[in-house]
Amino acid sequence: MLELRPNCECCDRDLPPESIEARICTYECTFCADCADGVLKGACPNCGGNLVARPIRPADRLAKNPASTKRVLKAEGCAPKAA
């Protein structure tokens, strides 16, 4: 099950579980659409994988399987991973 992290790792923007602005990689690193498309050019700065729209967990399922409250923020900022 996806962790559904609550914020963008680059800019710390809030990304609630229902956000259509959340993007994730295969490791569930989480970014807002602005950072994912702009700064990161669609590639995760942690693993180099592609960033895709995060699925939305239906509200009735959040009660049993809540989103994470642990915020992750890259202290060194975000830049695309060098090839």
Question: Keyphrases for this structure?
Answer:
DUF1272, 10% strand, little secondary structure, DUF1272 domain-containing protein, Herpes Virus-1
Taking strands numbered 1, 2, ... along the chain, how are they ordered across the largest sheet?
Answer: 2-1-3
Classify the secondary structure makeup into a structural class.
little secondary structure
SSE order, as H and E? EEHEH
Question: What's the total count of β strands?
Answer: 3
Radius of gyration: 12 Å
Number of domains: 1
How much strand content do the residues show? 5-15%
- The proportion of residues forming helix, as a percent range, comes to 10-25%
**Apparent shape:** elongated
Main beta-sheet strand count, sense and barrel state:
3 strands, antiparallel
CATH topology: Herpes Virus-1
The CA-CA distance between the termini, in Å, is 30 Å
- Given this structure, which CATH class is correct? Alpha Beta
The stretches of 5 or more residues where confidence is low (pLDDT under 50) are none
Mean pLDDT rating = 92
| Helical stretch tally | 2
CATH architecture level-2 label: 2-Layer Sandwich
